[in-house]
Every structure is written in C-alpha cells, then in structure tokens.
Amino acid sequence: MPEYYQTRALVKKTKDAKFGEGTIKRGVTGPDQIEVDIKFCGICHTDVHLANDEISMLLPAVYPIVPGHEMAGIVTKVGENVKNFKVGDRVGMGCIVEACLKCSQCKFGDEQLCQTGYTHTYSAPIQYGQLATDTGVTFGGYSEKISIHEHFAVKIPDSYPMEAAGPIFCSGITMFSPLKRCGATAGGQRVGIIGIGGLGQMGIRLAKAMNCEVTAISTSPNKEAKAREIGADHFVVSTDPDAMKKAAKSLDIILDTAAVDHQAIDYFPLLDANGQLVLIGVTIEPHSIPAGALMFNRQSLSGSLIGSMLETQEVIDFCAKHQIIPDTKLVTGDQVEDVYQALRSKNDSIIRYVLDIEKTFK
C-alpha cells in the first residue's frame, strides 16, 4: 500500500465553493523525488479558469482542487537516487509534474510535447507514477509541501528573489521558449509582441534583454507608455490602418499573446520575408490563413505552449542574469477570493499576485 503524508492546503471542494484551509495527502518522498517546503506560489489566470471549471475542453476541473503551478520553495528531503539537488536548495516547479520520459519528444528534451501527454501540476490524473496523492489526481502549490520527481524541478539562483520566481515558471517560460526556437536568443532580431498583458509584458522584457529590436502591438493606444517603460522600441496600434501600413515588413518574429478572438492573418503584413508568427494566446474562433499569404514571402505560422524543463532552467537563469523581475504583490489565503475577482475583471495588470505560503498557514 502506498504511504502518504498530510499537508495543509487551500482547497476548493466544489465548483461553487469558496477556498478554505484543509489537508491533502501526498505520497511520501520516493527514491527519485525531492520534498519541498513551498514558500511562495504565484496565482495565474489559468488558476481562476480551472478552479471554476471554465476550460473543461482543455483540462476539466477535478474537485476537491488545489491550484497553483508557479511554485518556489526549499528542498527539505531528497530520495536516494536524486543527483541534482540537496537539502537546502532553492527550487522552482511549474506546469509539468510528470511525463513519460521515454518517447522521442521526451528524450529530445521536450517534455511539454510528450507523445502520451504530460501531467499538469494540478487537477490532472496521475499517469506515470512519478508522484502520488491519495486521490490519484494532482494537487498544486497552494499548499505547504510537495514531493516531486527531481526531473521536474529547477534551481532558483541565489541572487533571484524567491517571491518573484513563480511567474517565471509560467509566463516567463511561455515567452522564452518560442523566442529561443525562433532564434531571438542570438540577438539582432526584430520582434513584435501582440498583446501587452502579463505574457506580452514578459515577452517585451525578455526580447529586449536578448538584444532584439522590440515592437509592442496593441489595440489600445494607452498601453504605449507602459510598453516603452519596460523595453519596447516601437509601438503600433493595430486598429490604426496608417500605423499598420507604416510598420509593414518591419518584423522577423511575432509572438501573438492575444486571448480574444482575432485573425492572425491581419498581422502577417508586418512580417518581412521568412518571418515567423507564433500563436500563444488561446482563442475560440479558428484562424483562417490563405496559403498564398504565407507562400509568397516564405512566412510561417506555428503555436507554442509553455516549454521544456531545460528551457525552464535557462529562463530563470536568464532572468537572474538580466534582473528581469516581475512586479509582485504578496497575498495570503484569506485574500485569494478577492485576487480571483481582480484577475477576472482585468487581464492586463503588470502586477503578479503571489501567495505567501508561510503566512497563509502560520
């Protein structure tokens, strides 16, 4: 019989329930696992949608649910086979807690593309036995402790503030991975970012630190000051035909973070020959792309979702080196309902809410 330990957590028992303090059972730390005292956990828009079962077409909510996939903490125990971590290490954990580690994608180092599917950090059936709970469903970071396979943790540099690390394992990796794949890490690329919300703001900071020329693209003219403040060299209002025409063929890469229905084809005129547009924001309405729009300028369209564990380590190291630190606001468990309401009402805030786990369960 599996052995478990109890740990306190913020639990939402049903779709209509409010969060309350409770206990969950996690599997005792195994030979390939590390046990972590979670110190901070970022609160993501995905938490809001998933906790309320609003994205069941992608990932259905399983109650009781403990959200949180932006974790930072301290290693308190290591299994006998663990090679990369020791007690006292500062570690981070993001959106993935399991993958098969056997398929061609996993062996290549793209666990997020696991051919049999990776396991999300919470509200997902445990598939590969690389961690355990008494329900067989993953619990996230709104809790005091977690035991996780060492493969799915990364080291947080000593110079990086732990309370700001969690968002890097979500918005940071989501933007870093396509930038790297498109060649922006070498510098000198002309990068456009559509949408100046949380993802877009992180993308601007990363691309600028990569020595790229950055253009922020938004439907809202009032985003210009903030976009330039965080590193944008240019600003284009996408609803202004003259501005769009003036910016024609000015970009090599476009990362499209817009999560409201729109047509990506409208932005292809901004790309130069051989340009790449990457879809990151999830929309309901399908994109319609005529083949000729891509063929005559040898342009390409792709999508991207989070990133690999190697890239996750790379992005936190990169952010530490370049002092890319999200603006955060620490909150406690009794404020979570208010935070969820704030995130529902505004999706472009530069402030990232972070749950202070020690103060929540003091």
Automatic annotation (TrEMBL):
Q: Please report the name of this protein according to its UniProt entry.
A: Enoyl reductase (ER) domain-containing protein
UniProt cofactor(s): Zn(2+)
Species assigned in the record: Tigriopus californicus (Marine copepod)
Domain (Enoyl reductase (ER)) spans 13-351
* Tagged with keyword Membrane: no
Q: Which PROSITE patterns match?
A: ADH_ZINC (PS00059)
Q: Which family does it belong to?
A: Belongs to the zinc-containing alcohol dehydrogenase family.
Q: Does the keyword Ligase apply?
A: no
Kindly state which keywords UniProt assigns to this record, in alphabetical order: Metal-binding, Oxidoreductase, Zinc
Output the superkingdom of the source species.
Eukaryota
SUPFAM superfamilies hit by this protein: GroES-like, NAD(P)-binding Rossmann-fold domains
A GO molecular-function annotation: zinc ion binding
SMART domains (alphabetical): PKS_ER
UniProt cross-references to InterPro entries, sorted A to Z: ADH-like_C, ADH-like_N, ADH_Zn_CS, CAD-like, ER, GroES-like_sf, NAD(P)-bd_dom_sf
One Pfam entry for this protein is ADH_N
